[in-house]
Amino acid sequence: MTDETLSNLLHEERRFPPEKAFADAALARPELYQAAQQDRLAFWDEQARALTWETPWTQTLDWSNAPFARWFVGGTLNVAYNCVDRHVEAGNGERVAIYFEGEPGDTREITYAELQREVSKAANALLGLGVEAGDRVAIYLPMIPEAVISMLACARIGAAHSVVFGGFSAEALRSRIDDADAKLVITSDGGYRRGSPSALKPAVDAAVVNTPSVQKVLVVQRTKQDVAWNDEKDVWWHDVVDSASDVHAPQAFDAENPLFILYTSGTTGKPKGILHTSGGYLTQTSYTHRNVFDLRPEKDIYWCTADIGWVTGHSYIVYGPLANGATQVIYEGTPDTPHKGRFWEIVQKYKVTQLYTAPTAIRTFMKWGDDIPASFDLSSLRVLGSVGEPINPEAWVWYRKHIGGDRTPIVDTWWQTETGAIMISPLPGVTTAKPGSAQVPLPGIGVDVVDNDANPVPNGSGGFLVLTEPWPSMLRGIWGDPERYKDTYWSRFDGIYFAGDGAKKDEDGDIWLLGRVDDVMNVSGHRLSTTEIESALVSHPKVAEAAVVGASDETTGQAVCAFVILRGDAGYDESQAEAVITELRNHVAKEIGPIAKPRQVMVVAELPKTRSGKIMRRLLQDVAENRTVGDVTTLADSTVMDLIKKGLGSSS
Ligand code: 6R9
């Protein structure tokens, strides 16, 4: 990518300095940056000391076998003890750890003392089922407390978990179980989604037919729907966990003991099993969770809306918040069940102080209309977070105004499954925010934007996002495939981590993420970022969401094709289609330049998204290029593509 590549950037000049009262009281201090700059490793030592270690480490970082890192060498700790027991020992056993809100409206309140008993029981049950330190356990559960308890029970006994999204197919589950050689699968009869029970166990039944490593299947009863039962393999949670002893002495494990494997899709077909270990991962997730969200465990009610099957659920529902002794909300279901104000009703009910969600959700709320959040009391909110995709400036501003009451800081947090924890983000109370930009690396993190030859680009230019220093929560490899780890992340540039994202530095050196580098189009030799054109479209008052792809074009190489969802209050009907499309094409030309003017704008009702909220542009490209639509198995809703094709067919 060259400088000229990303020169047509939107001009975003709005600035949101921290409010004085917030800044005065903020947990994150500007001095953190200086401390980290003076001595990076001493800075990380300091953060690691916030955890409770059984044996102290003798070396902060061993990078002698790069890119295979070891952090806090020689240190030992128990991750579950750090997330649960130590809070009870500190006298906070009566503090609520989890406010669970089921989709049908059932609730559960779990204190840290109860969590300690539940995790101990589950740990004892896993040991009874033959799971040992060093084994792998697959977890295929809905968003219920047992998902958190299962993960912590694995951590407690030193077994690595591999959580697989409840939305994934039997085949996806099978291949992940197989790749990790999991001994046990933890699942449930089903979960609630969009107002009705949806089954999970049949997918497990189908998967384990062909996974010889699996000895037992542990089944939580959530919906009480009928399930097929295999007497040799299947065990009810309420039989073996409820009857187990609620006392379990945690044993300390090496800082580099595997904590989990989490599969993420790569550019080739086979998913990559991203491996994370214990000490460094817990250090960075807890440090970032405290500072990025200004987390006060004594009084805050934190809520991250991610699913546990995504890395955000691992780092910012389970490990970061619980290591910090936070009180949090866990919600099982979808934002529009039973009504489109469900999220805001939950914020109001629990007086949520920090909300962490994804741009795709925010744009959906914009589409549903301002009056929905306006009818709830959202005044408890103090910090809003965004993760998963670049957040368009318009969505950012809407989030702050309509959810944050024009008052709350917004943290746009850039990171990946591979990084384990947040890497780039403003600090609330410290950073003057710019809508649409993740802005600055966190203290202790080395980030740059480089050109094709690994030279840092000057301010005002774009290139590839790289991480220049090893960090504590970095992936330790790809499960079973060290070569692929080196090839994917460490071979593009010598000695630095290639993230796969395009980015630009603005005049102040702040970082703007531009989407995956494979989302870059080449139109008549000009490189255009999909994100940039999507942002231009979303800045139009009639547009709620936009996805842009490059479709092959005989004359220009690629042509810009845009799919847009209009806002609910745009007052659109079919008869205005032509006029709206022309208006939007001209709008992009005006905002970015005529070169970016879409060849086609298609008005659709939905966009294809993964469960973690990422738009699957590959499928839209199939539509734009009139091909048969490819594999839809990782979509949150696999019927969306049919809807899109049908809608376009009838309007053209
Ligand atoms: C945490 C998570 C990682 C990819 C990443 C990037 C995109 C995530 C972002 C963002 C712009 C942000 N991404 N956060 N892009 N701004 N704040 O999402 O992990 O599922 O592994 O995805 O998501 O493209 O490379 P993961």
TrEMBL record:
Its cofactor is Mg(2+). InterPro entries: Ac_CoA_lig, ACAS_N, AMP-bd_C, AMP-bd_C_sf, AMP-binding_CS, AMP-dep_synth/lig_dom, ANL_N_sf. Its EC number is 6.2.1.1. Gene3D superfamilies: 3.30.300.30, N-terminal domain of ligase-like. Mg(2+) binds at V538, H540, V543. GO terms for biological process: acetyl-CoA biosynthetic process from acetate. One of its GO terms (cellular component) is cytosol. CoA binds at R193, R194, G195, S196, T312, S524. It catalyses: acetate + ATP + CoA = acetyl-CoA + AMP + diphosphate. GO terms for molecular function: acetate-CoA ligase activity; AMP binding; ATP binding; metal ion binding. It is an enzyme of class 6 (ligase). Residues 532-614 form the AMP-binding enzyme C-terminal domain. Keywords: Acetylation, ATP-binding, Ligase, Magnesium, Metal-binding, Nucleotide-binding. Acetylated. Deacetylation by the SIR2-homolog deacetylase activates the enzyme. Residues 31-83 form the Acetyl-coenzyme A synthetase N-terminal domain. Residues 90-479 form the AMP-dependent synthetase/ligase domain. Belongs to the ATP-dependent AMP-binding enzyme family. Catalyzes the conversion of acetate into acetyl-CoA (AcCoA), an essential intermediate at the junction of anabolic and catabolic pathways. AcsA undergoes a two-step reaction. In the first half reaction, AcsA combines acetate with ATP to form acetyl-adenylate (AcAMP) intermediate. In the second half reaction, it can then transfer the acetyl group from AcAMP to the sulfhydryl group of CoA, forming the product AcCoA. This is Acetyl-coenzyme A synthetase. It comes from Kineosporia babensis. The gene is acs.
